[in-house]
Each structure stands twice: as structure tokens, then as C-alpha cells.
Specification:
With 145 residues, the protein is mainly alpha-helical. The protein has one domain (3-138): Winged helix-like DNA-binding domain superfamily/Winged helix DNA-binding domain (Arc Repressor Mutant, subunit A, Orthogonal Bundle), CATH 1.10.10.10. Helix content is 69%, strand content 9%. It has helices at 3-31, 35-48, 54-61, 65-77, 97-117, 124-138; strands spanning 51-53, 81-85, 91-95. Strands 1-3-2 form a three-stranded antiparallel beta sheet. Helix 1 (3-31) packs across helix 5 and helix 2 (35-48) packs across helix 5 (97-117). The longest helix is centred in the N-terminal third of the chain and has 29 residues, at 3-31.
Amino acid sequence: MSEAETRLWHAWKLAGEAVMNAVEHDIADGSGLSGPDFGVLARLADLGNGELRQQDLAKSMRWDKSRLSHQLTRMEGRSLTTRRPADAKGVVVGTTAKGRKALAAARPIHAGSIRRHLIAKLTAHQRQELLAACDLLRSPEVDTV
């Protein structure tokens, strides 16, 4: 890679890590939830109305089964989630009342942190350009030659 390409790669990585770390820190300080706790609870609420098959939850988070299983064990130990058999091959993950309450408390912290650490630092034009770039980077590769 050229020096300019290397600088771009490192800038991209460090900027993303800085924003994510700041948001996770704010959530932990304000609610006691870790970033992964918040992610699991938010996915359960947003995608499954409080419940999802464990396999679907792992896929939506882009986590392997082992990572999710360990995370859920920690969250069950703190009464944030439950697991129950769905059928012979599946498990359903659910949010407890304590988990729903923790998520409700963390959501405004999450939104405020994103506004502080990302949105407020960019102009409206920069936000549009960043969104366009992110959309492009997430799309399947297209041969531009």
C-alpha cells in the first residue's frame, strides 16, 4: 500500500474505534451495561420484539455462536436475558423485565453519545458524504474498470 492508502486505512480504523469506544464508555458509565450487553438487548427489542432465536441473534450481530453464548451466559447471570428451548434444534433468547428496564435507561445515553461523538463533530454536508461513503462500502463489490 502507498503511504496515502495506509494513512487512509489508519484514519478510518482509529476514527471508528474512537467513536465506538466513547459511546460504549458513556453507556457503561450511565447505565452499567457493556457495549455488548446494549447490543444484545437492542437487537432483541428492535428485531424480535423482545425475543429471537439464538441463531438469528448471532447472525444479526455478526458474532459466532461461541461469542454470543458466552455473552448470554453473563447476561443471564445478571438477569438481563433468558434462554429457552424453541424446538429440537433451536433456542429462543428473551429479554427480562430487568433487561428491558436497563435498555430503556441506556437508549437516551446511547443517542446522546452518538450525537456528541459523531454527529455534532460533522457538518451536515460531511454527514451526507460519510453516509454515502458508508453505503458504498457496505454494498457488494462492483467492477469499476
